[in-house]
Amino acid sequence: MEIDFLQYQVRNGDTLTSVASRLGMTGEALRMFHNSHCQKMDTIWFENLNDVKKIFVPTDFKTEAQKEQQRKNSLPARLHSFFSKTYAVHETVESPAESPVNITYTVDIAIDEDKNTGKHILSYLQKDCKSDGNIPDDKMSSLSLACMQSIMPLKFTMNEQGKLTGFADHKSITDTFSQQRKELEEFYIGEVSQHYMDVFERNINNESFLLQQFQSTLLFQTLFPGIHWFQKKTKWKEPFYFLQNSFPVQCEITIKHENKNEDAVLTILNGNITELCTSQEIMRGIRLPKPAIEPATGNIILEYTTHTKNKNLLQAKASVLLSHNEEFIHQHHINITQG
Predict the structure, then answer these.
(1) What are 294's strand-pairing partners?
(2) How far apart are CA 172 and CA 74, in angstroms?
(3) Within this chain, do residues 201 and 114 fall inside the same structural domain, yes or no?
(4) What integer pLDDT is reported at residue 130 of this predicted model?
């Protein structure tokens, strides 16, 4: 067991306050510390230390202000150095009527600063997608992945808090696909493939729609948190997407921190839906004009393991649960790890 105290030999003229001041604590704090470690017969009640021979004193006492500063110093506070270069992602989606879907893939990330604008530029590359451990081999899944891969890597603008604000150059995305489409058409032939590529091209031409497609995923909401979240201590309101391409739902968020070991700290955010909307509205992605008679119940939990010294993101997990009448209608889990 770790010993966090030692015995101090009382000298002539010592008082609780004089001894405590040398330790950076109050006399009352020292009295309470000693009494919590000594035997009952050695309890101290008074300021003077007459007839007291020894006092238990802490080896590493910290004031509340020092503890708060230590807490802040162990948590991410700036975007710089938060991300690693590569993350492995595992997602599981569940619904009552269907078997769980398991997807794995790899994400490469690089963040630079545009010297002309001062904005942070995020380069994002997603690759090696597998479903239930296998590379999708049906034609439409293969085409879908090929279309998305053709515009990678994507470059986003990011603010100081780590939130995506737009594309660095949307036109380059559309131009890239126009060029790559000719090669795709040589391999994926037929009316169905042509129609899919038409829809894909139309969708990526719509800049706001394309941005929302990424921002509303559980991956982006988890992997790109607000850096200021980590420094919060009290409850706050935050909107989250419970389904991709739906609408963000207001949640009340609580936060707590746990030291996993001396090198890592776990930050847990727990959010519950507070907005008066139905689960059907969320599933359909359409808000109705009338207030909800039976509001949706839902919960989102985000867990971040970060390095206490370099503030690097080591692992991120998230779980989303949407229910109706106490029965779940949608669950989504994601696990993001370095490497």
Answers:
(1) none
(2) 39
(3) yes
(4) 94
Which domain covers residue 24, as residue numbers?
Answer: 5-61
Distance, CA of 218 to CA of 216 (rounded, Å): 7
167 vs 278: CA distance, rounded Å: 32
Beta partners for 221? none
> How far, in Å, CA of 206 to CA of 174, rounded?
10
Q: Tell me: the pLDDT tens digits for 234-260?
A: 999 999 999 999 999 999 999 999 887
Q: What is the domain count for the chain?
A: 3
On whether both 209 and 222 belong to a single domain, the answer is no
Q: In Å, how far are 139, 242, 247, 276, 297 from 284, measured between CA atoms?
A: 27, 11, 9, 15, 16
Q: Is the pLDDT of residue 82 over 70?
A: yes
Would residue 101 count as lying in a domain?
no
Nearest 5°: the CA angle 260, 81, 313 is: 30
Same domain, 86 and 234: yes
Q: pTM for this one?
A: 0.80
Distance of alpha carbon 259 from its chain centroid, rounded? 16
Q: In this structure, is residue 44 part of a structural domain?
A: yes
User: Measuring CA to CA, how many Å separate 254 from each of 179, 223, 305?
Assistant: 47, 19, 17
Phi and psi of 16, rounded to 5°? -55, -45
d(C-alpha 43, C-alpha 51), whole Å = 12
